[in-house]
Amino acid sequence: MPIARVPAKVNLALSVGGLGGDGYHPLATVFQAVSLYDHVEANPAAPGAGVSIALAGPETAGVPTGLENLAARAVDLLAAEAGRAPDVALRIRKEIPVAGGMAGGSADAAGALLACDALWGLRTPRDRLFELAAELGADVPFALLGGTALGRGRGDRLTPVLSQGTYHWVFAIADSGLSTPAVYREIDRLREGSVLTEPGVGDRLLVALRRGDAEAVGAALSNDLQRAAVSLRPKLQMTLEIAEEYGALGWLVSGSGPTVAALARDEEHSLDLAVAFTASGVCRTVARATGAVPGARIVPAAGPRA
Ligand code: C5P
Predict the structure, then answer these.
(1) Mapping DSSP to helix (H, G, I), strand (E, B) and coil, where does residue 66 land?
(2) Hey, which residues does 253 pair with through a beta bridge?
(3) Is the Cβ–Cβ distance between 140 and 134 less than 8 Å?
């Protein structure tokens, strides 16, 4: 049955405006998709069974299997669109850390959209899939698109960014996740009374990506939410310091955290950084990945099974 493979993301820049009337913050962000994947398999279920979710893989702790799971909501949304019952058994194999700031939940929703579209033979136009994705969550459209892209609005209005080269990342994954809304609330608290400018992404990063200059990309990494994630989880400061100490080209909290992303010089250096993170005991586990990689796609069943 159809299996969608969906990458995690890291935000190379994340500029956050003031809280809007819709409960969201306007963003300017640069996403990069990285080679850490969830696989979502859609199987037919008996009439009236509704959606069920079975989880597998190293990163499943705390993932809901009911309708609170964004992937189940994706099935419901696509089924309503197609005028059919959402009778599907999803199998999700998770490698993307849960509540880690790497859009794992969004990846599963994007995967469920693609896998059910294939299972039901809907051939939903790509533009419509992106609209449905944006209804599900701010990071879901990018999970479909992949590569490197500028995100505006809630992060869901995407424009591809020219980028060359392969970027070697090391991710230090914390013991437990951080809630995205809680991190946004914390940045509002920390910035209370400040005058906020429009969110924007500086040219420095975009030029560095266009040139494929990893050193310059490393120097240009930035994340407005980092302060809030560190405020809620002060131990993250130590993780960031290890990345610096071991010569990362750049380091930052990924999205709303608490995963810390460190950009290595090359594959060998990424191994050194991974060992340093592991040996220091500052994180639960370490993952290495490269970017940019393509967005969600259907893969042959012979690949890693969901
Ligand atoms: O869209 P998503 O479900 O991923 O967002 C989770 C929560 O994160 C939102 O309900 C909101 O509190 C916060 N958020 C925000 N501004 C954004 C994206 C998310 O305030 N641009």
Answers:
(1) coil
(2) 260
(3) yes
Is 64 in a helix, a strand, or coil? Answer: coil
For this structure, is 139 an active site residue?
A: yes
The H or E element that residue 70 is part of is: helix 70-82
Pocket of ligand 1 (CB under 6 A): 23-25, 27, 137-139, 154-155, 180-181, 184
3-state secondary structure of 102: coil
Over residues 220-240, the pLDDT tens digits come to 999 999 999 999 999 999 999
| CA-closest residue to ligand 1 atom 13 | 181
pLDDT of 145-159, one tens digit each?
999 999 999 999 999
What type of residue sits at position 77?
L
Active site residue 235: no
Distance in angstroms (rounded) separating the CA atoms of residues 290 and 299: 19
The tokens 């924007």 sit on which residue?
Answer: 200
The token pair at 247 is 């010569």
**What is the number of residues in the chain?**
306
